[in-house]
Amino acid sequence: MRPRIESAAWPATIAIDCESGKKRKDKRTNRQLEIAAGLAVLCIGIVIAVVLARFAIVTDENSPAANLMVWPFRVSFLLLAAAIVNVIYRFGKLKVFYRCPKCRQRIARLANAKRTVNYYCPACNVEWDTGAVEPETAD
Question: Alpha helix locations (H) across 58-108?
Answer without folding.
Answer: 64-68, 70-95
